[in-house]
Every structure is written in C-alpha cells, then in structure tokens.
Write a structure and sequence with these properties.
The complex is a heterodimer of chains A (269) and B (398).
Chain A: E1 3-8, H1 17-26, E2 52-60, E3 63-71, H2 80-84, E4 90-92, E5 98-100, H3 110-114, E6 121-122, E7 131-132, H4 149-153, E8 159-163, H5 164-177, E9 197-200, H6 220-227, H7 229-257, H8 259-266
Parallel strand pairs in A: 1-9
Antiparallel strand pairs in A: 1-8, 2-3, 4-5, 6-7
Helix pairs in contact in A: 7-8
Chain B: H1 3-37, H2 39-42, H3 53-65, H4 68-78, H5 85-109, H6 118-121, H7 128-155, H8 158-166, H9 168-191, H10 206-233, H11 239-266, H12 279-298, H13 301-305, H14 307-331, H15 345-368, H16 376-382
Helix pairs in contact in B: 1-15, 3-5, 3-14, 3-15, 4-5, 4-9, 4-10, 5-7, 5-10, 5-15, 7-8, 7-9, 9-10, 10-11, 10-14, 11-12, 11-14, 12-14
The chains are: A alpha+beta (269), B mainly alpha (398).
The complex binds iron/sulfur cluster (2 copies).
One iron/sulfur cluster (SF4) is lined by residues 84-85, 87, 89-90, 105-111, 131 of chain A.
Amino acid sequence: MPKGVLVDTTKCIGCRACQVACKQWNGLPAEETVNRGTYENPPHLSGKTFTKVRFTEIEDNGRLQWVFTKIQCMHCVDPACVAACLVGALQKRDDGPVIYDKGRCIGCRYCMMACPFGIPTFEWWDRWPWIRKCTLCVNRWPGTDQEPACVAACPTGALKFGDREALIEEARERIAAHPGKYVNHIYGEKEVGGTSWLYLSAVPFTELGFPNLGEEAVTVNPARAMSAVPPALVAVAALMSGIYWLNKRRQRMSTARAGDHQAKEEVTK
Amino acid sequence: MTGHEVAEERRGFPFGTLILSAVAILGLATVLYRYINGLGAMTDLSDGRAWGLWISFDLYCGVALAAGGFTLAGAVYIFGREKYHTVIRSAILTAFLGYTLVILALLVDLGQPWYIWHAIIYWNVHSPLFEVAMCVMTYTIVLALEFSPVVFERLGWHVPLKAIRSIQIPLVIAGIVLSTLHQSSLGSMLLMMPETLDPLWYTPVLPLLFLTSAVAVGPAMVIFETTLSSRAFGHKLSTDVLAGLGRAIPYILGVYLVLKIGDLVFAKELSLAFSDNPRTILWWIEVVVGVVLPMVLLSRPSVRQSRPKLFGAALLVIGGLILNRFDVSWLALGGRLGYDYFPHWMEFAVSAALVAWAMIWVIVANRLLRMHEAAPEEEAEHHPAPTTKPAAGRPTAS
Ligand code: SF4
Ligand code: SF4
C-alpha cells in the first residue's frame, strides 16, 4: 500500500516543529539568513532544508490572516524526477517514497529542472555536490511503526501519515463534514497524476503559492517521444540504406551507359 | 601562391592566435578554479535555475550547430551529391570538435563529472537525457572514425585507411541515425517541463522541431565555416558548392516553419503568438529573422551567388537557431520563484574558451592536414574521367 501524508492547513499553527524535526532527523545544518520582514524562514528549500513552512498572508473578510503550508517533496505517484534521471539515481518505491541513491548520481540536475514542484536542491557550495530532498523518512517507518519525523513532531495533528487511499477518503469526509470550512479540492489527489502528499485548505491553493497543475502526469509526453525511438532508429537506418543503394545503382547504370556524360556533370565551376 | 597572400597570412594570424590562446588559457584557469571551489563559487546557478549558459549554449546550441557533419555526410555519401565532397572534411571536423566541446562542457557543468561514466553502466531507458548521453558518446566516436582517414592519409598509414574506408558507408548511416535520435531527444528532454516551458514553445512535436531545425542549420554552418576558412587558409572553393547548400536551406526551413506554425494552429494556440507576454517578441524574432527572412533571401539566385550575401543569410539561420535553443532551454523556461540568473563571468569564460580551443584545432588541422580535397587515389577511384578540379588550389581572387 503506498503511503502518504495528509496536511490540513486549517490546523497548522506555523510552529515549524516539523521543520526543526526534519533538520534533526536528517542531520542538516542550520542556515544563516537575513531578516526579510517575515517569520517565514529560510526563504527557500535548499540542500540544507528539506521542508519549510510557508507563511502566506491573505485577506479574509477584510481581516488579515495567515495561512501556513508545509512544503517538501510531494513524492509524486508518477514522478518527473524519476523519469528524468538518466542513471536511475531517483527511484519510486511501491510503498510511496521517491528516493535518491547518490551512488549513481552524476549531478546533471535534470531532476531539478523537471520537477513540477521545484523541489530537488543541490549542494552548490560543495566541491562534491549531491542532490538533496525529502526522503519521506524511509529510514524511519518501513518495518517499524514510526512516522516520518515531521509528522511525529506536529503538535496539532495538521499532519497525518497513512495509506494514501485512506487519507484521500478521510480528506473527502472532512470536506463533506465541514462544507464551509474547506475549498472542495484535495491538492495532490489528481495534480500531475497524483502525489503522496495531500493538502486541505480553506482558501484556493493558487493563493497559497501552490502551482496550478494539470491532471496529466508530466512524464506522458516524454514517454511517448521515447517510445518512438526504437522504430525511428530502424526506419532511419533502413531509409538511408535504401537511398544509398538506389543511388549507387543509378550511378553504376549511368556510368555504364555514358561514361563521358558523367564526367561533364562532375565539373563543378 | 603569390607572395602577397603569404604576407597576408603571416600578418593575419599571430594576432588572432594570440587572442585565441589568451581566451583558451583563461578558460583553463577558470575550470581549475571550478574543480577546487565547486560550481557555486564560479556560476550564478542556483536551485531556482539549475541549468544556465553552459546547457543553453554549449549543449543545446553546440549539438545543433554540429549538425553540418551528418547532413553533409548524408548528402555526399548517401544521396550521392558528390559536388559537396570538397567541404565534407571540414564539416566532419567541425562536428567532431563540436561534440568534443559538448562533452568537455559537460565535464565542467556536471556536479560529479568524475562519475560521468555512470551513464554507461546505469541505464534509465525512459530518460531522454539517457538517450542523448548515449548518442552523443557513440556519435563522437563515429565522427572520430569518419575523420580519421584524413589523419591516416597524412601519416601514410595505409592499412587503417583501407579499413576505415571499407566501413565508411555504415559509419555514415550510423552517424545519421544517431544524430536523428539525439537531435530530437534534446527536444524530448524539454517535454518533461510542460509546466515551466512557455506554451508558445511547448509542444509534443518539439522533438521534430529540434530535428528539422538542426538539419536546416547544418548546411548554414558549413557555409559559415568554409567561407571563413577559405579566407583564412586560402582554400579554393567553388561558389557553386556553397550556393547549392544555400539552395537546400529554404526547403528544410520550410518544413520547420510548417511544423512550427501548423502545430500551433492545430492545437488552436496560435493566439499565444499575439499575447502581450514579452516572450512573444523572442518567438517572432526567431520566426521572422531566423526562418522567414533567410528563406526569402536564399531562394534568390542573386543572394546565393554572392559570397557575402550567402554568408549573411547563413548567419541569420544560425542566429535564429541559437535564439531558439536559448529560448527553450532558458529564456522561455520559468525558474523557481525568488531566483534570478545571469551568467557569472567565469561561465562566459568557460564557454568562450571551449570555442577558442575548437578554433585552435581547426587552425592546426588546416595547417597540417589536407582539409579540402579528397585523396588523389580516391579521386581516381570515384572519377575515372579526369576533372578540371585543380589540386590543392589557391584562390585567384577573393
Ligand atoms: S515533487 Fe518533484 S522531487 Fe518530489 S517526487 Fe515529485 S517530481 Fe520528484
Ligand atoms: S542530478 Fe543526479 S539525481 Fe538528478 S537527474 Fe541528474 S543524475 Fe539523476
């Protein structure tokens, strides 16, 4: 059963316990940042920060309101990064997580360019840089009953870890039980073919900085193009051999018929 | 050869070579700095813009601009257009140097260049980049083999010369197949980015657009480089050859244009070209200046018969292609919010140095090897009747 996490942004209080727990569990260093006039910090995900809470200020009935959204790798059902990686350093596990094997990576950064959520990051400062991103704590939960570090740290129950299907069910129920409270949209249920992380919100997701994505997995078009490769290979090889053969034949026949005629043609000037 | 021309050559070269060497050496120093301090220290790349100048220029433009190799080899050996034989050697050499340059650029750009060979042992056949990597690698070897007779000939090694000549046609066909595949796969790579690539450029037929534009720029590059090298090295070059190449370009560009516009019409997205998005300007420059204008120019005999005009039209085709590759891999590709990118001077230094190195090798090759005439014995084989082609000609006028 693929796992997932349901984020109920209406329950998040922006304490960032998840952010800290993630750093602790993954042994990530702190980042030095400057005051940007917001509590949201650091400004971006990075090779030292796999998850962060985004603080969005919105106007709700003339009142200023904060919405907190935790962001991290979405662990897509059909991940662009996995399809992109030429050496298969990124893999999708049957139980949900998209994991990275630095024993294969060559550092081309195609995964960073391909990810529709802008997630993978790079250790730019390092002489031996690797790709870094959320692992869904695969080194915690399979085999044990431990949840991902961020989920375990959440004091309000805004994060819930479980089977993806069951979480979608539960999200539907929550929307149905409080129709006025949530927008009728489970972000991540259908986006780019579905993601392991699922979000509920009181305001439209585009207002929270979530990319507005289609339902088709981004891997569909490249997969179609790649499936045309073997036939194209055969076709081009056959076509070129055929044309070569025809030309040779014609040449031989015309030389046989009129040797001097050809010589005239060859004079290029 | 007249005394005047010798003097001109001597005067012209040292200065140019001096600049080239300076650029080439500065680039080496920059690369050394990169290996010691990491990419972050000498690029403006970031998590928000993970690919920059090197990918756009050295990879995307580099591969496309090296298309002269397979297009010319195809024209001569497969389609039997013997008259282009005189420029085939320089076309193959430029292609070989171009691909070497691409690989060297990747050795700078990759985060873990020492693991580049992982691409050979770990396969993800679903990745367009995997296919590009495989084809670029194999095709570089094919190009080296295709060019090797010129070197063997010079060294007087007859056995390998015979061996390579005997597999020449399979090599040429392999080169065409590999080129078709990876020129188009460079487009497939961008298909993975439907959400970030501007819809005016994003289309499922991107691989075909990449292929046709590369085929079109192949002859344009041959016109460009042979015009320059015939001036620099005093090779004899018949206008007929270059004019013939120029004649082919409008047809290929025509196919490209029909695909590009037809796709937008078919997808009912033509209105995107008239939106107020500032990127549309780039698209219009690409289409009008880089495609339509050279099509119009090159369909006129007066343009094709004039060296400078032909050269200018070829430049337009090349410029249009460069702009297109920059658009799809950078300018029309959205980055992550909150990041800017403008190449660090060291990024420019590396790209410039690679071009300088390629030019140095072109000069060396033209000094040491017979770049413009096929070997006499081959001439004899192919043309039983004597031709009026002067051997190792020098221009009578330029
Ligand atoms: S969010 Fe990005 S990095 Fe994470 S699985 Fe999806 S495509 Fe890969
Ligand atoms: S950077 Fe590494 S993980 Fe990402 S696509 Fe390239 S090889 Fe794969």
